[in-house]
Amino acid sequence: MTAAAREFNVGIYDRDPDAYLPLIQEAVPAATLRVCRDPDELAGLAADVEVLLAFKFAGKAFPRDAVLGLPRLRWVQLASAGCDHMLPFDASRLCVTNASGIHGDAMSEYVLGTLVHMLWDLPRLAAQQRRHHWEKFDVPTLSGRTMGIIGAGHVGRRIGQRARAFGMRVLGVRRAGGQVDGIDETFGPGGLEHVLTASDVVVVTLPLTEATRGSIGTRELKWLRPGAWLVNVSRGGIIDEAALLDTLRSGALAGAALDVFATEPLPAGSPFWDLPNVLVTPHIASEFAGWPTAVARLFCENLARWTRGEPLVNVVDPALGY
Questions:
Q1: What pTM was estimated for this model as a whole?
Q2: Mean pLDDT calculated for residue range 252-281
Q3: Catalytically annotated residue among 15, 164, 194, 283
């Protein structure tokens, strides 16, 4: 019997799901929605759910053990493209899907927006305005420069498309290699050094896995061109933060836009806050207005597939970590 032919329970783990709950109820009228707005109540409230839509609560660790302990759970839909907070899990018992595909536009706008912010030195212009001071200066442009995208998946492809619209040449690195739409040349992992040394701007969009954790360290940062710019919109654990701090303080890099950090929220005592060549943002590159509803629409598409017994989209392979 498929899920469409019987009643079943769907858990919603989110502090504020009211905007999209009607979408889910309309998509699966046979389902009973069980909403959990408090991490401490997840295990008791959702013990009988078969399907769980799971967001992460700001400032709270994701309750992975509680989720994996739900006795009837068969499928978890994550609200993010990254799934490191759900790993590891037993794919023979549980299907996990992510939200890959919904964040690409917002994240590509973040990357190009922060690059314009840094290259045009908008803080300097704002300071001049506050002082009523008129002073011209030359600025570098993105056109004609090379962008290297480390992690040329869905988000990386979208960033590449936007960068090419700015007149940039785009190189990419991805596990599988092969050509990718929106990227001029794509390399496998063995091409990382070539891409880093050839790029004026490096954008990190890798998923955080055991293979990628700490994969950009002192050696890789030394491969970057003098005066290059770095943008990280993936996970803080991918870049060795101590090595990055040393590189930024040395002046080897022109600057960096960092949306993710190993510890979040970024501690008030972190030296990243005070570096003049760093733009710190609070992990917002993917959180465009209305993004939870976009996640819910993807969830509804997958719910329809699940009730019909069809393959789900964005299934996570725990061996790969994405």
A1: 0.92
A2: 98
A3: 283
